[in-house]
Amino acid sequence: MAERPFFQDGVKPDFSAKEMEKLQVALAAKGLERPDEAALLELAEAKKKPQRKLAYLALAKLGTEVAVRRLLEELGFADEDAVCEAFRRFRPERAGKPLVTFAEQKWKQYESLSLTIGPAFEGVLTACACIDPAMPEPQALKRLLDIVRQAAAVEPEPIDPNNPHARIEAKLELERVHALAAGILRESTERRTRP
């Protein structure tokens, strides 16, 4: 199986037939006929998370300025995981710089000890999956790679010796982040040196 690049290129994925059917059912349940921007924005306010998740995916695929702004509003709240998935899957162009800022905020939370490294690094992975490495704002990419370098250098923290489960979990989390950070740095170096 080929390794999935962190910085995405190529054709964006589409909805599966099953997802499209679920989206149509969710829209119909709210009395909405077509999956246009206004209907998707309304569906994103649904009480049921599966309906909101479909709306987030559709908004990310739509990729308009309003759609991306609505998705960015959800970062840091209960649906953050669904929004990050939508961003990673459909990679709307307008999301690059705001997602780098999101990654920086997550990293600051880790540094202030209010977040463990795994969840903090999810923000970095989301930004890497969405950002265009040839973007006209190289400073945003540089800021993102600075966080990745910091993550690669994180040392294991002392863990409560009376809780071996926490120690193993923290070690696995850090190993995963180190491996992902190394992959991102390797890929960014390969892209810069490619003819």
Order of SSEs, N→C?
HHHHHHHHH
Radius of gyration, in Å, reads 18 Å
Distance between the termini: 25 Å
Q: What is the oligomer described by this structure?
A: single chain
- Biggest β-sheet description: none
Strand tally is 0
Describe the overall structure.
The protein has 195 residues and is mainly alpha-helical. It folds into two domains: 10-91, no CATH class; 95-195. Helix content is 67%, strand content 0%. It has nine helices and no strands. The protein has helices at residues 17-29, 37-43, 49-62, 65-74, 80-90, 96-111, 117-130, 138-152, 164-193. Helix 7 runs antiparallel to helix 8. It is globular, with a radius of gyration of 18 Å. The model has no long low-confidence stretch (mean pLDDT 80).
List strands and helices in order, with pairings.
Blueprint: H1 17-29, H2 37-43, H3 49-62, H4 65-74, H5 80-90, H6 96-111, H7 117-130, H8 138-152, H9 164-193
Helix pairs in contact: 1-3, 2-3, 3-4, 3-5, 5-7, 6-7, 6-8, 7-8, 7-9, 8-9
Could you name the key traits of this structure?
9 helices, mainly alpha, Regulatory protein RecX, 2 domains, about 0% strand, globular, about 200 residues
